Fold this protein.
Amino acid sequence: MDVRFHPDQHKLEAVGGNSQFGNAFDAWGNRFTLWNNDHVRHVVISKKYLDRNPFLAVPAAQQSISDHENQSTVYPVTRDPFHIHDSQTGHFTSCCGLSNYNGGNLGAGLEGSSFTCEPVHNLVHRDILTPQGATYVARRAHEGSEFLASTDAWFRPVFTANGPDGALYVVDFYHYTVEHPEFVPPELLKQIDFEPRHKLGRIWRVLHESSKPAPRPALHQATSAELVAQLANPNQWWRTHAQRLLVDRQDRAVVPQLEELARKNASPLARLHALWTLDGLAALPTDLVAAALTDPHPRLRENAVRLAEERLPDPRLREKLLPLYDDPDARVQ
């Protein structure tokens, strides 16, 4: 299983789903994982719900969501590719570096895309995630090609991340091979230099030709009121760091500002961050949770259900919560 840390509570908690070399969250808090040959999976059910009935046998809490199979075909453009095993060729075999792009500055249609590195084939794969029932389906963004691929056999992308400028950052291991010596056939061992060789790793910054320069306020010097304003930033990088700093500071002077943001802001994501920031300050009023349970945006209703859990039993929440069993959105149900 995967784990998460609660530093403020000195706790280590097992969570649903497991991943080899990548964990990613979308803008709404959904978690995605991967395996060597399975490039995107969705953790559908939290472990805390399954723990309620220890006698219920549940085979999995996560779902493989690719519509182009788990061990999907990939489309490298490498000149003189080097593969240790023939079985590695032509499909996912080294998935890692999973991320969900929510930077707001990478061009039309890129928001919410899922990116997976495939270093054996010198490429980065992109999927479009579409809700399907209680989970998602991941569809190829590019038929017959990849989002990023190199002719250079040393290009080894291993990690992706949203940046504060809205760019997609790609960490390139840049190495002759990514194979562990233990798995290399004896006849090849003498041909391979497994040392880092000159430390040639690099970081690529990917932007679209339509991308605009983004302001970069110094959050560590910002007032708490200025941090609240960042919760409406179109780039998730700024929203999450502003929320983290607000919760770390525990400055309750901004509670009225956060409540107004949660009630009136036009952006569902701004309202979402305001609600969870208030929760992190132990200052979230029940009437705001009740209002969120009837929010027009289904992802807000879904998060409101989670926020309501710790506040039950409460007749004001029960009145709003119980009708959601018949909500038109499967994730809310």
Remarks:
- The longest strand covers residues 123-132.
- The mean pLDDT is 92.
- The radius of gyration is 22 Å.
- The CA atoms of residues 47 and 53 lie 11 Å apart.
